[in-house]
Amino acid sequence: MRNRLVLGNWKLNGGLTQNSVLLAQLASKIIFNQGRKEQACGVCVPYAYLSQVQTLLTNTSIHWGSQDVSRFESGAYSGEVSASMVAEFGSRFALVGHSERRAIFGDTDEFVAQKFGAAQRAGLMPVLCVGETLEERAASKTGEVVVRQLNAVIAAYGVAALQGAVLAYEPVWAIGTGKTATPAEAESVHQYLRRYVANAESAGSVKVADTLPILYGGSVKKSNAAELFAMPNIDGGLIGGASLVADEFLGIWASL
Ligand code: PGA
Hints:
The chain is an alpha/beta fold and 256 residues long. It is built from ten helices and eight strands.
């Protein structure tokens, strides 16, 4: 049985008052019961709010984490926040390789792999984001791109490092655009990624392909979440815009 997750990615949004209103609404409704043991919910917030989120979500059913971590552990790197600092606030997750980090802030595959390793060493669960642009999809390069992004981590740490990690397929053309991949389009990439992991590990003794949660992200809303989550290789969602609206996020969670 694979874990199923719904993760919010607040991006560069929030404010102390706004956060506490949203989190109170979520925490009052997202309560795990025995039937949902293998499911988890979390919010990935700006670093500045980790302390607030820790205070408000401790003893609730919602986990939290960051949207990035530094690839460095400490030293003269002004403006950076290390994975161990994120972990000190009780965080469970850290996104690495979000397409906005790759496209706007210059995160290369190699940097993303280093961030993945830094998160894992700090005890965080890395959520490795992969996805192709519209041009890459039009050139039939989707598989090649997502595998190249995934492979940077496998090359650095081995396929066993995916144990205890999460993969998120987020087609760049679907992020914040209102254009969602169809369930069939998303499923075919998820299946491709899972098969790739299975083949990569076939030589070794670890078996992570069956248990690796692969989330879909890109314009997931409460109105389309159920059909996406019904696909056999889609194990939940990474939610941007809709994670800022309680009714939307709760509707997505209910679809898991
Ligand atoms: P979106 O963002 O749901 O607003 O498309 C998803 C993401 O960037 O993680």
